[in-house]
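Email to the structure team, subject: Beta-barrel assembly machine subunit BamD model.

Hi all, the expression group asked for a predicted structure before they design truncation constructs. Nothing fancy, just the tokens so they can compare against earlier work. One-line instruction: predict Beta-barrel assembly machine subunit BamD, return tokens.
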Amino acid sequence: MIRNLKLKNVLLICSAGFILASCSSKSDRIQEYDRPALYWYNKMTKQIADYDLEAADDTFTSLESEHRNSPLLPTSLIILANAHMQEEQYALANFYLDEYIKRFTISKDIDYVRFLKIKANFLGFSYQLRDQQLLDDTIEDIKVFKQKYPQSKYMPLIDTINARVHMAKAQLDIAIADLYKRLDKPKAAEVYKEKAEKTWTKTEDIKEVDVPFYRAIFE
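Reply from the structure team: attached below.
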């Protein structure tokens, strides 16, 4: 009985300690407001360095809500976009890039941000026969980039991405042409064969993308 009583006391002490620690943690979080912009910026970059992107997103929200006109906002958006791209979270990266483009259109770094958006879409092109709209959108974004920023230092990288997305587009049209052949629709097959050749002249040089067996059955 004495032994049970001691065990109960230990459990009560542990529970009380947990509750106090929890309250203290909540109190610390509640006090996280009305801080200088540099405080939020430094906290965000540390969280990114610690691979805690969810916390970094929350910290950026605090920076943005408390300091709407801070000169640290554009840099923060770019840092977060790059961080999410590193983690292959391309939708979130695009969210921050779109926010930058919307708010800082006349920025001197706007060509870099638009390049990052094209890069994020290109890297997010994972399913060769299912991301058709993303592929078309990326081709259109590249066309606009070339028109608006012909002297951009990122043009060589844009040209590389442009070549690859056009090869992917041609390969997609070839796949559709082959499908129509199997369905015994030669006219439709010829239309897509011609589209592929217009997109990329030497279609025979395009190396077929390797698709994992568990995805190939859905392609």
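Residues 2-30 form the longest helix (29 residues). The chain has a mean pLDDT of 80. Ping us if the truncation boundaries need rechecking.
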